[in-house]
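Researcher: Sequence of PDZ domain-containing protein follows. Predict its structure.
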Amino acid sequence: MRLPRRLRIAGLLSLVALLTLWPVGRIAYDGWRLVRLVGALPEAPPRGFDWVVWQEREGRIVAAYVFPQSPAARAGIKAGDVFYLLDFQQFFNVEDLKRAIDGLAPGSVHTYALFRDGNYLELRVRFTRYPTFLYPLSASLWQFSLWGFVVGAVVHVLALILVFPLARRGLRARWSLLLILVSALWIGSNLLRLLIIQFFGPPLPGGMTDRAFQLLTFTGLVGWIGFPVLLLRYMLQELHLIYTPWHWSVYFPPLVLGLAVVAATFRPIPLPVTLEAFVAPILFYACCYISLTAGLILWIPRRRSGDSRRWNRTGSLLTFGFAVLLGLSVLDVVPLLGLVSDSAVGWLIVSAQLLSVAPVGLVSLATLKLGKVDLVLERTLSYSTVLGLIFLAFVGGMSLIEPVLARTTTPWQVVGGVYVVLLLIFFERMARWLQRELPAVFSTERQRTRQMLSRFQEQLRHIFSYEALAQQTVEVVGEAFRVRSARLFFRPAETERWISSAYHPEPPYLTEQVLEALWPFIYQEGRIWARNPELNESRLPEAQAQLLESRGITLLIPILGDGQPLGVLALGAKRDRRDFFNLEDLDLLRALSSQLALAIERLHLVERERMLIRQSAEAQLVALRAQINPHFLFNTLNTIAALITERPDEAEAVVEHLAAIFRHTLHTSARPFVTLEEELTLVRHYLSIEQIRFGRKLRVHIEVEPGLGAASIPAFAVQTLAENAVQHGLGKLRKGGTLHIQARRLPDGLLEVLVADSGIGIPALWEQNGQVQGRLPFFGIGLRNVAERLEQLYGRSDLLRFESAPGQGTRVWLYVPISTAP
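Model: Prediction complete. Tokens:
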């Protein structure tokens, strides 16, 4: 019967964990045998080191390499010197000499007897501690180690910069950050030790530098022990195997090794071994865990539909093969390390140390791409270029200036200071130029996306309808981010309907019904929801998140207006399955969402303003009617009272005209516009009453061009002009006068209504030459109402014009655009 896969994986984890303890078990077994033999647990002294690589050549022991900054080099030992005696004791092979050197205490001084070019030399060398996990075996290996760890440190710094913003959003990114931090602890500690030795030489025992060097060794080993188990744990979580039975067994070997390193470094208890004895167990443990991680990637590949974050199987296969081969070599199963020289072994182990960069890349590559990669690389290249050029210019310039200054009495401090100031000015301008030019070098799809969104945001102010705004937005977003589908929903107010638009919709669709079910949670959160945990800012309940995933939504961006969501922009996966959203995309979409919210609110204000204009015009019309009706009623009743006894026929005519006016008012009470014929009918009834009042002193002439009776004009506009002409122009003349009303069509499509009277005129206009337009100081309620309604309805202030002169009366022109009149 075949066991379930989870149990098989659990057994594999336990087996590998047990196997990694084999070298530590051998050390413990040897210690136990030593206790049985000696009767006590002796303490092994620290291993000494002279920083010289001794090799056998033609039967002689020769110094093949002497580290430049070492005590041996300072004492005078050079490459090619022939070994004769150590503390006046002769050794005949390299292995015996190495064991003797290892047994000498760090800090002690010993005498070397050497031959150089046939001359006998005696040189005294102070020994140092052995540099654990550092291999000064040749100049090329040392430079490879130094630059390899520099490159590794730069990679880790860039990875931390990219992952840190994501770690606040998702658990997976936090594990990536922890993994890179632990790996950086190992890489950074080793790099610092290399730099200390490179620039200051090996630290002598007992000083502050030596204690700092030991602490860096300890922290580096802690990072090297912690990195493989965190890498394995991360992969178990990625493959959803974190709750596999007995998975906790993988933590036991690093715990044992960590305690052993603490004991060997700080020596709380005596041990028969030194810290160097744990190099092989730590290396074997790291090889086992890294090979297990790569093996799991190869064994259980991720095949999520639409998930572009697939591990590189080729890289995993190479990592697996290298780690297995090196681990077997540590156990001497494959005698690889025994078949090559010490220098080759050093190359191999240093390469294994730098191997941690590969898993960091394999594990974190997908996570890193979620960050602002282009921006970080652009700034890194810019700063590195400027700093490198500054260094070269300073060193080269001072090298050229120094011989010149040697022949003069000019202080070099002054010249150097002036030169530095000039360099700073020049490179400050160069840095500005690089900041402008480098984005063109890094111009990618994201640069194209930024340009498209920038152009669209400039066009937002020219969109004047909700439907056009929704449609253009989803089209631009779909093309800019190359998504498979997009859907936009918004509503300017809670009481209004949803405005929506789609870009290449794919089933199952995100409908209004689904959005209504999600809207209370989206409204409460008001933050971006992403299917990818590293980008997710929202805390939608699991059921709602699954509902979004079932509809193919990858990203959900709320449109926030004045702190409250107005709608959402839902995006599907990108067309290229290898591409996905990152932090730069989120910043761009967040900025677009803000601009979109402003555009929606602007359109909402425009709609409200239009509605208020209509309501204001209607309210003013109602107010005008309310003002006119009592005025008519008061004057007409007085006329009827005066005529009813003497001229009952005329009183009856006044009553009929008054009834016609009331009937017209009732019929047009809800209409802001009436036809010209209806308006002139009202005017005729009104003027008939006034002619009965004034008698022959009021003469009226009305002329209308044929075909204009059906033209629409604002209600009570002509009636108000006629009433003002009678009341304020003709009514104040004892002899009376003439009122002339003329309507005609102008060539430019305007309807012109002229109301002219022969009254006393308007003194405020007597000094004006020609026609005067706009709102004028002498306007009363009626004229102000007409002028404001014309401006609100047609957006023009030149549709009401006045002209008056002494003794010539007043002429008023009313213009109405026939083509735009409702």
